[in-house]
Amino acid sequence: MIASIAVILGCQLLGEVIARGLSLPVPGPVVGMAAMVGVLWLRDRYRPAPLMAVEPAGRFLLANLSLLFVPAGVGLVGNLEVLAGNWLALAVALVVSTLLTLVVSVVTFRLVARAMGQG
């Protein structure tokens, strides 16, 4: 489990170092997630022993994912005055981003299905 968490945190650290070192407009955790995709690709392709240990911590984190939302909920309650002052802009952003996500998901699904000969 410790090796598994070390690989996950190492990818996040690598992402932070790359994002800050190159002054990228992308957050470090996003770059770290791309690094994790690379680690998982290497794991599935070459099966190196250190990378095989990613699964236990991943399963544990997914099983307890709801606990990671508690700090966000506390942050919302702690900033209710900000939410009250900007509720319309937040509501519009929420609706537009949800619709945009749905449209992009459908278009991507259709393109992949067509590319695979199923559309």
Please specify the SSE layout and strand pairing.
Blueprint: H1 2-21, H2 28-46, H3 54-63, H4 70-78, H5 80-85, H6 87-115
Features:
mainly alpha; 6 helices; 2 domains; 78% helix; 119 residues; extended; 0% strand
| Strands, count | 0
Following the backbone from N to C, one meets helices and strands in this order, namely HHHHHH
Instruction: Give me the Rg, rounded.
Output: 19 Å
Average pLDDT score: 85
**Biggest β-sheet description:** none
The total number of structural domains is 2
Q: Report the total helices.
A: 6
- Give the CA-based shape: extended
What is the helical fraction, as a range of percent?
over 70%
Low-confidence stretches: none
Structural class: mainly alpha
β-strand percent reads under 5%
Distance between the termini: 42 Å
